[in-house]
Amino acid sequence: MKFALIALVVFSLVLLIGLLWQSKKMLSEVVKENKSRPKQPRPRQLHPKLQNKQ
Fold first, then answer.
1. CA distance 33 to 54
2. What whole-number distance in Å separates Cα of residue 21 and Cα of residue 15?
3. Domain spans of the chain?
4. SS3 content of the chain, % helix, strand, coil (to 5)
5. Separation CA 3–CA 7 (nearest Å)
6. Which stretches of sequence are listed as region Disordered (predicted)?
7. pLDDT tens across 9-31, in order?
8. 20-24 long-range CB contacts below 8 Å, 24 or more apart?
């Protein structure tokens, strides 16, 4: 019984580390893609509640 518990803990740790590594890799790809995309300046828009106060 103890062996099964230890195996479960080890398996879950490996799974967690794998998921963390994969998410980090995907995040770095997204950041790289965002940096390569040319920036298009957008006109600043006020929140609708702020517009009618002016």
1. 39
2. 10
3. 1-32
4. 70, 0, 30
5. 6
6. 32-54
7. 999 999 999 999 999 999 999 88
8. none
Q: Which DSSP symbol is given to 37?
A: S
Judged by DSSP in three states, 40 sits in coil
Instruction: Note the Cα 9 to chain centre separation in Å.
Output: 25
Confidence (pTM): 0.52
Amino acid at position 26, single letter: M
Tell me how far apart the alpha carbons of residues 44 and 51 are, in angstroms, rounded to a whole number. 12
Secondary structure of 12-29 as H, E, C letters: HHHHHHHHHHHHHHHHHH
Contacts of 54 (CB under 8 A, 6+ apart): 46
